[in-house]
Design brief:
Blueprint: H1 5-22, H2 26-31, E1 36-42, E2 45-60, E3 63-67, E4 72-77, E5 84-85, E6 90-94, H3 97-132, H4 138-167, E7 173-175, E8 180-185, E9 192-193, E10 198-203, E11 208-215, E12 227-232, E13 238-247, E14 257-263, E15 275-291, E16 296-298, E17 301-307, E18 313-317, E19 319-324, E20 327-332, E21 339-341, E22 354-357, H5 364-368
Parallel strand pairs: 1-22
Antiparallel strand pairs: 1-21, 2-11, 2-15, 3-10, 4-6, 4-9, 5-8, 6-7, 8-10, 11-14, 12-13, 12-15, 13-14, 15-20, 16-17, 17-18, 19-20
Helix pairs in contact: 3-4
């Protein structure tokens, strides 16, 4: 029985080969199927925009650092980070003991100066009556008049000191100059506030700009008023049209880049600190473009089906470049005036016979519309 096993194996192989010769393979059966109709388009050269992309950040155009005008201890800080405040809301309060002491001192000095002036004024009145009766000389009258004038000036100076001292009271309670959001607290209750040192930092969310930097080779193509497309990753790659608002005409000496600020308009959801990308249109190029509907994926490679002279579909790999609307730039793999199949399905294979229909060649004017 063991001796007949090789013989049986040879007989089975021969039978399988005979059956195979009698029936067409899967590919042969597929090639013999009826041709199918596909929409096609002629590949042409078009003018496509030259786009320069650069990353950036949305920032507040109205950031304010609120400081104290007085040197005093902070009695309380009434806001927290992230808190929304309105114009006039209290931010922090200072210890007013020193201010009240200065007010009392100024008021006492003014009261003393007022008494001196009143006495000097009374002396002038008395000397004028004596001068009318020739009881005093004119020189003595002028001396008391001069003393009265000096006393009057000192009284005015003292009253001005009272006004200045009292005006310091309003600086002990600091309010918000704008409506916005508190983004930082630099001091706490009990800390010493010094003039010029920030205590609270505010940002207005009504004036959000996109801040980016462009290379020195590109800055000459960008002008104030140009429209720029902004993409916001945090908002599902939201596309926002912005306008170049300001260009700083002084580049960084290390990076050789220039700062550009773009106003994105009143788009809801944009917050300071968000990341984005700006697409500047800096010119146009003549390039061979391909409709994205013609791109087919075969074996993990991008390609297209080109209709040859025998109306057969020939798969050809292509290398894509820039994206523009619903088209892609073709760097290699195609030539102008070749016909490609649109929306090829997964069953279409290299060598299949097709029937081209509905040449959807779109003119540049129609596409621009």
């Amino acid at each position: 029985m063991v001796r007949f096993k090789p013989f049986l194996f040879v007989m089975i192989c021969c039978a399988w080969m005979l059956l195979g010769c009698g029936a067409p393979t899967g590919n042969e059966a597929h090639l013999e199927s009826d041709p199918r109709a596909f929409s096609v388009e002629t590949v042409t050269k078009r003018s496509i925009p030259r786009v320069y992309e650069t990353p950036g950040t949305f920032v507040s155009d109205d950031r304010i650092q609120v400081a104290s005008r007085l040197a005093a201890f902070i009695r309380s800080v009434d806001v927290r980070e992230g808190q929304v405040v309105k114009r006039g809301d209290t931010l922090f309060r200072l210890d007013a003991a020193d201010v009240e002491g200065a007010v009392r001192q100024a008021e006492a000095a003014a009261a003393q100066a007022r008494s001196v002036f009143e006495d000097a004024n009374a002396d002038v009145g008395r000397f004028e009556r004596l001068y009318e009766t020739d009881s005093v000389a004119q020189t003595e009258l002028r001396q008391v008049q001069l003393a009265r004038d000096v006393a009057r000036d000192k009284l005015r100076q003292a009253e001005a000191g009272v006004t200045t001292a009292r005006s310091q009271r309003r600086y002990t309670t600091v309010t918000s100059p704008v409506s916005g959001v508190v983004i930082a607290r630099h001091k706490q209750s009990g800390d010493l506030a010094s003039p010029g040192q920030p205590i609270i930092t505010l940002e207005s969310q009504k004036a959000v700009l996109f801040d980016t930097y462009v290379a020195e080779s590109v800055i000459r193509f960008i002008n104030v008023g140009d429209l720029v497309e902004l993409h916001v990753d945090a908002l599902n790659d939201l596309a926002v049209t912005g306008e170049v608002l300001r260009i700083v005409p002084s580049g960084d000496v290390v990076t050789r880049r220039f700062q550009v600020k773009i106003a994105p308009g009143d788009e809801a959801g944009l917050l300071p600190g968000m990341f984005g990308r700006a697409a500047f249109r800096i010119g146009e190029d003549e390039a061979l473009v391909l409709p994205n509907a013609a791109i087919a994926l075969r074996g993990g490679l991008d390609g297209v089906f080109v209709v040859d002279t025998e109306t057969r579909a020939r798969f050809r790999m292509v290398r894509k470049g820039r994206q523009w609307q619903n088209r892609s730039e073709v760097i290699a793999g195609l030539q102008a005036d070749e016909t490609v199949i649109l929306n090829p399905d997964a069953s279409l294979r290299d060598g299949d016979r097709v029937i081209p229909k509905n040449d959807t060649h779109i003119s540049d004017e129609a596409e621009d519309e």
